[in-house]
Amino acid sequence: MSETLSKNMSLISQNTLGGFGGVGEGMALQVTGKGRRILWIAHEGPPKNFTGVDVTDPKNTSVVCQTELPHQNMRSNSLEVTGDILAVAYQVYELGLEPAGMELFDVSDPANPKSIGFHSTAGPHSRGVHCLWFVDGEYVHMASGAPDFTPRHPRDDQFYQIIDVRNPGKLQEVGRWWYPGTREGDDAPPPERINPVPVEELRGGDAVRLHNVNVYPDHPDRAYLGYIDGGAFILDISDKSSPQVVSRWSPHNPYPGFTHTVMPLFDRGLLVVTDECIKDDAEDWPKLTWVIDARNEQNLVPISTLPMPPVEEFGHKGGRFGSHNIHENRPGPSFHSEEIIVGAFFNAGIRVYDLKNPYQPELIAYFVPPGPENSRASTIQMNEVYVDENGIVYAGDRWAGGLYIMEMDI
Amino acid sequence: MAQQYPDFLSKDRPQTLIAYGIVTNPETIARSFERSEGQRPFELTNRYALVSPASPGLRLSSPGWIDISVQQMSQVRCSDDLFDLCRERLINRSSPFSKLIRLFVERYLEFARAQLERHKSELGAGTADDEIFNYRDWIFSAWLPLPQAQILLPAAFAADRPSFAELDIAFSLPGQLIGVMIESAGTPIRSRQKKLDYLAENHPQFSLVRVPKTRLQNEGFPEDLFSETFVRFWQGLSLPQGPCPPEVLMGRLVP
User: Which of A174, A222, A375, B213 has a Cα at 20 to 30 A from A269?
Assistant: First the structure.
C-alpha cells in the first residue's frame, strides 16, 4: 500500500526509533514529576530492549533512552510503567536460556533507567515472560514459564503468575494458575490441540498458554486471561495464593485459536476479547474481536464482533490481517472508555469502534498508513496501541515503522 | 427541511424533542416531524417526549409513556402493583448494558418512595388501604425519568442532519429540563461533549446535574444535587393520579 487510508483520524507525527522501529506489545506512558511525558516502548525483537520517547509535544518527539538486550537470542516484548517504576518482560528463544523473567527499573530519570529488581523464571522448560501487566505499583501479573513447571507440551509453558513487587529488592511469586491438564502430573487430561503443528516448533501457534492478563485496581478480585487456544478466563483472585476459575469462554474450535486479550467493561457487563492473527496472507482468517455479554460472569455469551474490512481487500495485501492488541483502559495517564474501543489490526491499521450498541459495533475511525521502509512486510503491521487521557493515539508497527502518533476526530 | 424539526431556540414556538429509551437511531424520530402537517402539540410516547416551556411536567402519571395493555392493567390489584409495573418498564427502557443508568433509575424510584414515607403527614391522603386515596398513591406524581435521553439540537448547531445531545437521564419539569450525567472514569468524547456543551449553553430551560458514580453506588440517590421542586414532587397537586387515567383506557377500548 502506498497511500494512507483514514477516516476521522490523522497523523500527528512518526518516530522510527533511531532505525529500530520494530514495536512489540508494550507501550506505557509516564508523566514525570517535572511534567515530561515519556512513552516507554517494548521492541518486537533484538537488539533493543526498550525505548523511551519524550512525547510531551506529540508533534516533536525525541528518543531519550534506548537500551540493549544482553544477547540476541531473546526479546523484551512487553512492558508497563506505574509511577516511576518500569517493569520489563524477558523472553528467550530457546528453552533454558537466561535471562528470562521480569526486571524492574527506576525511571525517575528517564534518560538513565536504573535496575532495581529482577525476578528470574528461567528453567529447563521455560522461555520466561511473554506479557506482563503492572498498573497498581504492587503486583506484576504475567505470563511466564517457571523453573519448577514442566509442561506436557513445550509450547504450553507460560502460565499465570502473580509477583509481589512492593519490595523491589525482594520480588516474590505469591500466586499462580495454569490451565488444568497442561502441566506434567496434572490429574486433568491434556487439552485439545486446535490446529496442531509439529511439537518441535517452539514458536508454533498451537498453544494452550497465557498471553495477556488484565487486573484492574477497582476490581482487584478479578483477573481476565487470554489463554490462547484455551480461550478466555475470568479468575477470582481475592486470594492471590489460590486463584479460582469463575468462568471460561472459548470460540476455538471452530474458530482458529489464539485468544489474546480479555478486557472487561465493568459498568456495562461486557468483555472485549481479541484473537490474535498470527499468520500472513489471511491464512488464519478470521481473527476477530469479540464482544461478550458478561452480565452474568458465570455464563459468558458472545453477542457481536467488531466489523472488519473485507478480507478480499486486505487479506492478501501482505503481512498479517486481523485482530491483535487493543487499548486496555489501564489506570494512569490513559484514555478510559466503556464505549470506544481502539485496536491494532496489523495491515488494517488502527481502528476505532463505537460500542454504544454492543449488538452492532460501529467503525467510527481508522488510520492505515503505508507500509514503512525497510519492513519485512509490504504493508503496515500495527502491533500495539495506547491512547492517552487526551485521546492521543500511540501505535507501533511490528517491523520498522516505529511509533505513529495520531489524533481522533470522534 | 430542518426548520420543521422541533427547535428549542424557536422564538414563536420553542419545543424540545427528547428521544429516550433504547433508540438506536433518533434521527428516525426527528424525521417523523418532516411528515407532520401543522405544529404538533405536547406529546409523550414510549420513545420520545415533545415539550415546550408551557408543557406540564412529565410524571409517572403522565399518559403515553408506559405502553400498558388493558389486559395488563386489569391484573393490577393495587398501587404497589402498578408502581412495580412502572419500575419494570422504566428499567427496561434503558439498555441492559447501561448498568449505571439502570442503577440510577432504581435508586431514584427507591428515593421517591422513601420521600412519601418521610412526608406522609403532609400528603393529605389516607393511610389505610381501603381508602380511595392512599398516601403511597402519590408515587405516581414522581417526575418521570427518561433514560438514555437524546435531545434534538437546533439547525443552528448542525444544519445538514439532525444532531442530538446525549444524557444519561432527563427529567422534564414545568419550565425546566434537567439532564443527569453519571460521572465515571470515562474520558469525554469530543463530539459528544460538544453537543452537550451546546445544549447547556443554549437551551433556556436546561440544567445539568452530574452524579458521581461512587455516590450512586455507595450512598443511594443523591437528593442534595436536586432542587426542592424535584424532591417534593407532590407539591402543587391536589390529588394523586395513576399513569393510566380512565380516558386512556377508554380510548383503547373504543375502536
Answer: A174
Residue B178 vs residues B112, B147, B170: alpha-carbon distances, Å:
17, 12, 6
Instruction: Identify the closest residue of chain A to B94 by CA–CA distance.
Output: A357
- Summarize the confidence of residues A52-71 as an average pLDDT: 98
- A18: closest CA of chain B, how far (Å): 32
Distance from CA of A301 to the nearest CA of B (A): 13
Alpha-helical segments (H) within A120-270: none
The answer to whether residue A225 scores a pLDDT higher than 80 is yes
Residues A238 and A396: their CA atoms lie apart, in Å, by 35
Nearest alpha-carbon partner for B112 in B85, B82, B137, B81: B137
What is the model's pLDDT at position B2? 41
Q: Please tell me the distance from the alpha carbon of residue B87 to that of residue B107, in angstroms, as a whole number.
A: 11
3-state class percentages of chain A: helix first, strand second, coil last, to nearest 5: 0, 45, 55
Element (H, E) at B193: helix B190-202
Q: Report the b/e string of A185-195 with b at 16+ CB within 10 A.
A: eeeeebbebbe
Amino acid at A180: P
Q: What is the pTM of this model?
A: 0.95
B194 in A contact zone (CB under 8 Å): no
Q: Which residue of A has its CA nearest to B194?
A: A410
Cβ contacts of B186 on chain A, cutoff 8 Å: 336-339
| pLDDT interval class at B126 (50, 70, 90) | low
Which amino acid is present at B202?
Answer: N
Q: Which residue in the set A268, A391, A410 is minimally distant from B97, CB to CB?
A: A268
Burial of B189 (0-12, 13-18, 19+ CB in 10 A): buried
| Residue-by-residue DSSP string for B91-157 | HHTS-TT-HHHHHHHHHHHHHHHHHHHHTGGGS-SB-STTSSSBGGGGGGGSBPPEEEEEEEPPTTT
Across the interface, of A270, A337, A357, the residue whose CB is closest to B186 is A337
Chain A residues inside the 8 Å CB shell of B96: 269, 295
pLDDT at B255 over 60: no
Mutation target among A267, A339, A353 for the B interface, most CBs of B within 10 A: A267
pLDDT at B240 over 70: yes
pLDDT digits (tens, 9 = 90+) for A92-112: 999 999 999 999 999 999 999
Global ipTM: 0.91
Task: At A389, list the grid cell.
Answer: 487521557
Better pLDDT: B212 or B242:
B212
